[in-house]
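Quick log. Single chain, no ligands specified.
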Amino acid sequence: MDLSEFQEQKEPWYKGPIKYIIGVFLLLMIIMWLVPFYGVKQNPEPNYIPSVEELHVPSMTVPNITSNDIRSYIQTTSEIKQIADKIVSLSCFQTSKVCNAKAIFYFVQKNFNYVNDPLAFEYFKTPQESLKSDVGDCDDTSILLSSLLQSIGLQTRFVFVPNHVYVQVKLSEAISAYKEEGDWINLDATCDNCKFGEISPQYYKSEKEYSQ
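-> predicted structure:
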């Protein structure tokens, strides 16, 4: 067999095993591109968490509430809604209830310091008072968090455990990893180390009461 006959019989490179290797490589590249894309879409994160100062909170009228029912302190006034709208507009570039809820949770967690109530009695702050002072206890933080979330149309409830209260938000759109009971997600803004969906381990087995 001379050289010309050998060249005629030799299989082109693109018809050999290399085509399978290239095909697998391209498939892996597509998968690596699609997984992060859908992960971000299903579980979006805020791009930025503003400070209270950045929101330019206006002077607000503090309502005179004397009830012992924590639910009566939730405020969804136009002023509170404007603040919630600013938070999510600065934090989330995409339209997502999950991202909006995360932005508001991390805003409250980041910007408010824990200060106890007087020893003699329980004192509930309105969200207006909390925004003015930047401090409060778990009751005050939960009231503020619920007010901001409800003002953008998200359902919330209070969860009471011994000597503590935190919030749950109902989000059917969220991934199952965040959910504890049905579509309810834990939000404890006074827990500095807790992420969205987490509570302090000391409350895992605590008896819980709910109010919404």
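The two ends are 89 Å apart (CA to CA).
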